[in-house]
Task: structure prediction
Amino acid sequence: MSKAVFTDFDGYQEVADAVEMSRKLGTNFTAKRDLADQYIKRLHPPKMRLRVTDIFDETVSTKTFRMVSEDPPMPPFQAGQYIALAVEVDGVRTSRPYSIASPPNQLGFYDITVRRVDDGVVSNYLLDHVRKGDVLESTGPVGEFYHNPIFHKNTMVCIAGGCGITPFMSMIREILECDIDRTVHLFYGNKDFEDVIFHETFQWLSERFENFHYYPVIEEPPEGYDGCRGFITGKLVKETLGDLDDKTYYLCGPRAMYDFCLPELEGLGIPRSRLRREVYGALPDITKDVSWPAEVKGDASFTVQVQGKGSFAVKASDSLLTALEKNGFILPVQCRSGECSMCRVKLLGGKVFQPPGVLLRKSDRKLGYIHSCAAYPLENLEISL
Ligand SMILES: Cc1cc2nc3c(=O)[nH]c(=O)nc-3n(C[C@H](O)[C@H](O)[C@H](O)COP(=O)(O)OP(=O)(O)OC[C@H]3O[C@@H](n4cnc5c(N)ncnc54)[C@H](O)[C@@H]3O)c2cc1C
Ligand code: FES
Result:
């Protein structure tokens, strides 16, 4: 019989000898596998219980919640990742993702910074009802929005809108506190000056560190304001940076800001491969999406039949996930923005609207799966969970 190719790999012989020895000694690898499982669960826990130990006011509409694990140690994370906090509001169990704003070089606690969204269910609940000492449930840290030193350039251009500043706070603090050889240009857009989160900290850091540059951009600035005004446009980015090459661009904020900034950056000739993004939720009114079918009104009502589990009514403008949660169905959920695949369900009948940019795997498309967080009913539906 010919020799197997892998026997030529470096280290093969050592591994083969160890396996042979353990066979002779009768080593029980099942016990070791359980240990490995325990380590993996510690590093990537599917669920955590977090006690709120402090709450800080940031702006009139924003607070930071400092949280400590009830089952320490806190798992490590990459600056830019988020946790999905689960809460029960008016009898409905739901969750929302929040980026970790504290840096990963300290794991005593996680900070999340939450801005109030008008009529928003969870942001209002957290800001108005959560108190020091409360325990919240969350996922472990997850997400793909972080700097990868192998693929990403060492000059980061961070473009944030509103509460989309939080992952950048974590990244910037890690870079500056750990003296990492990386340069950051932060463009931070807000409607009003008093909405700017972490302004004093960024101002102070930019005066102290040569590798951090801060450009607040205010849509409706107060009288006497002498910084950048309006929106974060391609022209502003180009005029500020000059050379656009050798940089990776990170975009984070609400959907409307993303929809505005992405074409601006693409208009500068920045290829998608150098653009990283994190979009905070859907449009406030999904029927305003340019590809929404005009013939379906947002308040149109349809029926969702859940195979073997009953049926309920749903409005076209409600995501399928929101409707499922309101009717007591609990799905595994992380990003709520159509990216992670956790909330997928199988569409057996009917038609849904899926906003452009939803990242469905090819196999999911083929087998009829949809992301329920980014699917809106256009007809009566039949699904299986
Ligand atoms: C990966 C990720 C990380 C996030 N990190 C943070 C964070 O660090 N801090 C933070 O405050 N938020 C963050 N968000 C947004 C957060 O998850 C919620 O969407 C937000 O708190 C609103 O939830 P809500 O329940 O109050 O509003 P909902 O009841 O879900 O929504 C109410 C209405 O407001 C719209 N809406 C939802 N979110 C926004 C928004 N951000 N801006 C404008 N309109 C909105 C909805 O489309 C809806 O029409 C993050 C989102 C993602 C995807
Ligand atoms: S929760 Fe991530 S795709 Fe729906």
User: Anything to note?
Assistant: The domain at 289-384 is CATH 3.10.20.30 (Ubiquitin-like (UB roll)).
